[in-house]
Amino acid sequence: MVPALARPYDRNAMDLDEHETDTSSAPSRRRGVFLLPNLLTTAALFSGFYAIVAAIDGNFDRASIAIFGAMLFDGLDGRVARWTHTETNFGKEYDSLSDMVSFGIAPAIVVYQWGVARLAEYNATWGRIGWLVTFFYAVAAALRLARFNTRTAAVDKRYFEGLPSPSAAAVPAAFIWCAHAYGLGGLNGLVIAFVVTAVAGLLMVSRFYYSSFKGVTLTGRVRFTYAILIPLTFVVIFMEPPAVLLALFGAFALSAPSVWLWRRLRRPASAPTPPPGGG
Questions:
Q1: Would you say 101 and 49 are in contact if contact means Cβ atoms under 8 Å apart?
Q2: What is the pLDDT of residues 66-89, one digit of tens each?
Q3: pLDDT (tens digit, 9 = 90+) per residue, 161-219?
Q4: Domain-by-domain residue ranges, the chain?
Q5: Which range among 12-21, 54-63, 120-129, 250-259 shows the weakest confidence by mean pLDDT?
Q6: I want to staple 127 with a disulfide (CB 3.0 to 4.6 A). Which of 96, 119, 178, 270 is the partner?
Q7: Which tens digits make up the pLDDT trace of 238-269?
């Protein structure tokens, strides 16, 4: 038996030891990313970045609209990836980082720049609370995204555990848009702004279950009355975008706690606690 140090030099053997497997006969894999879904993710990231810049410049209506634009692109990138069979781990990670900017950092900065910073003019304690609330929202968004990424394979696809970060971002964004459009200000408006932001953050990290609407198919048949309601909904939204969007996303954010409370009040005291479901 030849000692290991005395083995004759074999170039092929050395290559196998270094690279573990012989890939000379295997076809080389082309490295790269799929353009279309990642381009949409980049558009969502740009919208979130623009919202931050617009808020710093004092253009709060544009900042709020940019967050809703990020929601649109965020909703498209995953669907396009599934339709074109271009889903990758890179795309999932990139989408998560984009969500953190667009639905975590951007809404917090928009709220802070709009007026929470001015709470210090009324009381130094209020200013500190407002600063902490916007930071809490950003942390809640990060925790929400981390929990979603680590539990993707174990949860019911029909529901989201906690308010999804895009829907959570829509609530303070729509409120700031309304406040800017209708001239809501003063101490009451500032207090409402960070209360809304804090509640949105709490709902993101809550254990409430929200419908994912993944059972809805665009290729299935629907009643004719439903087909009429779709354009009417868009007409109503375009008539008063900030107010209607605030009402829609606010109602969705409060739907799960409301259903949970309603079930709890209706359940007899002796009845066992049901497993987590839609609320």
A1: yes
A2: 999 999 999 898 888 888 888 888
A3: 899 999 999 999 999 999 988 888 788 888 899 899 999 999 999 999 998 876 566 55
A4: 35-266
A5: 12-21
A6: 119
A7: 888 999 999 999 999 999 999 999 998 887 65
Phi-psi region of 42 (alpha: psi -120 to 50; beta: other; left: phi over 0): alpha
CATH class in words for 35-266:
mainly alpha
Count of beta carbons in the 10 Å neighbourhood of residue 48: 29
Report CA-CA distances (Å) from 119 to 57, 114, 182, 205.
Answer: 19, 11, 20, 26
- What Å distances lie between residue 157 and 130, 180, 197, CA to CA? 35, 37, 27
Pick from 184, 168, 174: nearest CA to 240: 174
Distance set, CA 167 to CA 50, 55, 160, 245 (Å): 19, 20, 11, 11
Tell me if 116 sits within 8 A of 135, measured CB to CB.
no
CA dihedral 112, 94, 36, 204 (to 10 degrees): -50
Distances (CA, A) of 179 to 60, 80, 130, 172: 9, 35, 17, 10
Helix (H) or strand (E) holding 157: none
- Strand 159-161 versus strand 209-211 pairing type: antiparallel
